[in-house]
Amino acid sequence: MKMIRFLVIVGVLGSLSACMSYYQVTDTVNGTRYYTKSVKEFKSGAVAFTDAATGSRVTLQKHTVTKLERKEYADSVR
After folding, report:
1. Which one of 7, 21, 35, 45 is CB 3.0 to 4.6 Å from 52, fit for a cystine?
2. Considering the entire predicted model, what is its pTM?
């Protein structure tokens, strides 16, 4: 029973990590690039997210958002 429970937990955690999204958000005013795992978009067109490098909450009005592969994200955040 414990083995089945363990396998279910490992399977659920594995599927959750496979569904993780990674983004590069670029400030089009000054070219600064930020990396994050989630982006909230507002009706006004602005986006808000937490910068992976600093942990700071960032809000940008003029931006581009690019979805990244996990490896690209990991290489960029280092």
Report:
1. 35
2. 0.75
